[in-house]
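Quarterly update from the structural biology core.
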Amino acid sequence: MSESPPNPLNLAPWPSVDFSSFGPVETKPLSRIQVLVGGFVARNWVMIPHVTHHEEADITGLDATRRALAEQSGCKITPLAFMVKAAVTALQAHPQFNASLDGTGRALVQKKYFHIGIAVDTPNGLLVPVIRDADVKSVPEIAAEISAVSELARTKGLPLARMSGGCFTLSSLGSIGGTGFTPIINAPELAIMGITRAFEKPVNVDGALQWRTMLPLSLSYDHRVINGADAARFCVTFAAALSGFAAVKGEG
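Predicted structure, tokenized:
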């Protein structure tokens, strides 16, 4: 069998198993991206004390806003573009999230810019292009950039510079499904928002039950810096920003 993976924490050795003794097998090497990302993910999971807070955003009217804005701008706009803007709103309201621990782990570097990473599933593995200066870009501009970098990630790949400098990451599984998950923080960021498929449920609105479209949110955060109350407030702000888009058609 091949040698065991690196074991910097001096854990029990990885099981060495001759799987062919149980039946037919086929061995396929991981892609270069999978190996690279796998190392980063393992490091981040082990070194960062993750906690995940779950929330729901009422996006009942967001689709109408999205379609109206797409018609006005003439470009395809997905809900992810609105989520990028919601992330900026939440980071502005809760600046402790827009920071990173320095190399010593004893000081915070507070960022004054708003660069949002978006996780993209590619045939060779996960890539996270960064939408820079999302605070000064309109929803159509962000949508066009997301489309361009996602296509590039899935075809030619992305240069490292295009995946650097992020403040906060969005990982959306909404087109696939799920009701919640624990996304792994993209170090040196302090938090990451996971999004799963929207669903309909009855909600008490002004004393009457109404069917509303709810979007599940899963915020994983670094508990060394952020506490549970901070995370809850961040999620409330993020959800309110998404709900607010539903009330303002043509928001750019």
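The chain has a mean pLDDT of 92.
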